[in-house]
Every structure is written in structure tokens, then in C-alpha cells.
Recover the amino acids of this structure.
């Protein structure tokens, strides 16, 4: 019952970005300083780019000296152009950026605006000016989910003074359960569009109330786990491996490949936390990621023949492998035994 009520409180899933045809779709990101706006701008650009559209990032945050530089670096990583101007006011930057987007056939313009440590008149005046100038199709409030009640208060204030169309919750990768999601939705009536669940640029997920409800209750998140597996793991290879397991012909080459695919899925603790029944038991549990690196080093220090037939790894070979991988003979023994 609690699970179902939480889903109701968070409303219907609404993750679509309404794109405009024939003109650039303008998305304006707003929020307090430190909420993760600039990184989110990069993540959003990656998401939009992956849908086959051509985004342009706009550096309109002249308050924080490193913001423009940070956006330029993100743009380089994503091969997405970044529009910026030195010594110009945000309004002029946005005006020229829109012109540039039209001239260069950019379908989506993502504007990274300035934030403050708290809401003040100067910040709101600047954001209202940009809103008036650009008439953005969507305004997203970017909010740090770890700040709890403060996040809810600032969401309410931003919505009253500026108005926005949706929320992006950031920093949901830590121990935050995401309770802010319920309150923000209840207070503003606006949908939560995306959640940021890690530093990397592909760690922006669509928001699904049912998954968040499970997370809040520590019930795991099977659907996200399956999606993560589909993105990271080669299904054809997985089937071959399954056959080898049945035939009892699995060797260390197969094991190494499997390890590397699991690493692609993100931090192990996070992946394990999605499994029902394990989620709430992960608190305080230390998952040693370095252990996986040690195993990888040991296998990579073996010859191809040794990987294919681990039985031939005798005492002197074990010593050589331990030396080559910077581990101990005990580590090598343990891996072979496992």
C-alpha cells in the first residue's frame, strides 16, 4: 500500500521533451549554485544527441569563473559545440547563441544559467530577463537531492517567481533515498523529468515513479538493473558463456571478459543495490572494487595457454604470475581455486 501511495504522490511518469519542428527547441536550466547544473547540461546534451538530434550548449553562467571552462570541456568530451562569449552579459550571450543555433541548424539549445548559494532578487531578475528574451520551450529546475528539505523550499521559490516545466534531481547515486522527489512533486505540481545517478555523462536516467518508490523503500530496482545490463553486456557473448558454463568448459579468458562487462555497468555496490532484498542491506557494506582490478591483473599476467588451461599453472608459474601482477601467491591461489 505504501509503495502504491508513493507512486501516486509522484504522479504519472512524464519524461518526454516536447521538441519543436522548424526552429531550435530552447531548454533553460535553472537552480542554485552547486546543484550540478553544468554537468546536467552535458548529460542532457548527450541524451538528446543519442536521440539523433543536434544540440548546442550555451554558457550563460558568468558568475562562476570555472563554469564556462567546465562546459567547454564537457562539450569536447561529447563532441557537442559550446557557445560562449568573453566579457559579455548573459542576456547578450543567449540572444547571440539563439541566432548562432538557427544559422548552424542546431535543433536543441541547452542554456546553462547562473546560480547563487541562495535565492536573491538579482538572480531572479537575470533569469526572468533570459526567459523573456529566449521564450524557452522548457525550463528545468536542477536540484541536489541530497539537500532534502532545502531542495523542496528552493523548488517552491523558483516555481513561484520564475515558473518551470520540470525537475531534474541530481546526486541520487549516494545514500540519498530520494524522498525530495515526493515533496518537490507535491509542492510544485511539476513532473520530475530525469535523475542524475553518477558523475559520468551517461548517468542521466528518465524518472519513473514506481522505481523511485522501490528505491525509497529499499526494495531494489530490477527494471533499471535489466536496462543497465542490456546497455553494457553483449547478449551474444552472454549466450556463448552460458553454453560454456553448461558444458563445464569455462576458462579464465571467459571470466576476464565477463569481469570487464560487469565493470561497464558502473560501481558494483550500486549494481548490487538494485537487486531486491539486497538494496537495504548494502548500507555500511564495503564493496572492494580494487579486488576486481587485482583479479584482472592476475589473469592478464598469464599466458594464453595458462588462461585456457588453468590446471597447468604450477608453483613456479604461480610465482611468475604473482610477480607480474604485483600480487601475492595467495591471491593467485585464491583465484585459481575460485
Amino acid at each position: 500500500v505504501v509503495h502504491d501511495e508513493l507512486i501516486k504522490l509522484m504522479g504519472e511518469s512524464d519524461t518526454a521533451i516536447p521538441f519543436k519542428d522548424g526552429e531550435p527547441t530552447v531548454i533553460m536550466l535553472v537552480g542554485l549554485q552547486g546543484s550540478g547544473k553544468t554537468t546536467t547540461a552535458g548529460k542532457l546534451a548527450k541524451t538528446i544527441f543519442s536521440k539523433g538530434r543536434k544540440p548546442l550548449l550555451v554558457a550563460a553562467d558568468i558568475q562562476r569563473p570555472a563554469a564556462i571552462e567546465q562546459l567547454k570541456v564537457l562539450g569536447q568530451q561529447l563532441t557537442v559545440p559550446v557557445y560562449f562569449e568573453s566579457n559579455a552579459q548573459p542576456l547578450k550571450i543567449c540572444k547571440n547563441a539563439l541566432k548562432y543555433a538557427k544559422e548552424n541548424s542546431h535543433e536543441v539549445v541547452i542554456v546553462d544559467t547562473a546560480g547563487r548559494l541562495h535565492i536573491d532578487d538579482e538572480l531572479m531578475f537575470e533569469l526572468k530577463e533570459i526567459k523573456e528574451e529566449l521564450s524557452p520551450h522548457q525550463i528545468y529546475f536542477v536540484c541536489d537531492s541530497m539537500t532534502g528539505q532545502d531542495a523542496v523550499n528552493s523548488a517552491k521559490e523558483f516555481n513561484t517567481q520564475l515558473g518551470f516545466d520540470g525537475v531534474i534531481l541530481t546526486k541520487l547515486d549516494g545514500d540519498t533515498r530520494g524522498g525530495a522527489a515526493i515533496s518537490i512533486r507535491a509542492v510544485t505540481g511539476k513532473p520530475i523529468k530525469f535523475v542524475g545517478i553518477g558523475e559520468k555523462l551517461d548517468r542521466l536516467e528518465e524518472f519513473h515513479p514506481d522505481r523511485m518508490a522501490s528505491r525509497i523503500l529499499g526494495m531494489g530496482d530490477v527494471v533499471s538493473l535489466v536496462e543497465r545490463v542490456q546497455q553494457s553486456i553483449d547478449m551474444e557473448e552472454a549466450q556463448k558463456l552460458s553454453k560454456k558454463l553448461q558444458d563445464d568448459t569455462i576458462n579464465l579468458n571467459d571470466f576476464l571478459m565477463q569481469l570487464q562487462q560487469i565493470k561497464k555497468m558502473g560501481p558494483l555496490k550500486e549494481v548490487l543495490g538494485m537487486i531486491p532484498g539486497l538494496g537495504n542491506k548494502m548500507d555500511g557494506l564495503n564493496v572492494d572494487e580494487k579486488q576486481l582490478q587485482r583479479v584482472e591483473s592476475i589473469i592478464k599476467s598469464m599466458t594464453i595457454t595458462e588462461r585456457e588451461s588453468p590446471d597447468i599453472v604450477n608453483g613456479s608459474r604461480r610465482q611468475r604470475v604473482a610477480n607480474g601482477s604485483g600480487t601475492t601467491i595467495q591471491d593467485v591461489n585464491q583465484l585459481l581455486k575460485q
Q: What stands out?
A: The beta strands are 25-30, 55-59, 82-83, 108-112, 138-144, 166-170, 192-196, 204-206.
